[in-house]
Amino acid sequence: MTRDLLSQLTVLVLAVVIGFELISRVPSLLHTPLMSATNAIHGIVLVGAMIVVIGPDDPLTEVLGFIAVVFGAINVVGGFIVTNRMLDMFRTRPQPRGKRK
């Protein structure tokens, strides 16, 4: 195992542990607003991943990078859909004509 691979695995494991601890401590009431606020950050990460994918000539890296970009795009789109549904709950609906007070 090379030194670079070991350092990358260490960063991955630390990111997973810290991410799990942070997400599990967020109350469910705040989870959706926090996720909607981070959609812009996920979009920037997605653009960075696309830039990284076009760099290497290794087919395995390209395939894994493409899969990561697809999953990242699904994450961003899903976050915007959830945010839109959440905001729809707070919009006032027009009253029907026959039921006005």
Textual characterization of the structure:
By secondary structure, the chain is mainly α. It folds into 2 domains: 1-29; 38-99. It has 4 helices and no strands.
Question: Brief description of this entry?
Answer:
By secondary structure, this protein is mainly α.
Indicate the topology.
Blueprint: H1 3-24, H2 28-37, H3 39-53, H4 59-88
Helix pairs in contact: 2-4, 3-4
**Integer average pLDDT:** 80
- Give the overall shape, derived from the CA principal axes: elongated
Question: Number of helix segments?
Answer: 4
Give me the count of strands: 0
- Helix/strand order: HHHH
Judged by helices, strands and strand pairing, the structural class is mainly alpha
Low-confidence regions: none
Task: Estimate the strand proportion.
Answer: under 5%
- How far the N terminus sits from the C terminus, by CA atoms, comes to 74 Å
- How many domain modules? 2
> Helix coverage percent of residues?
over 70%
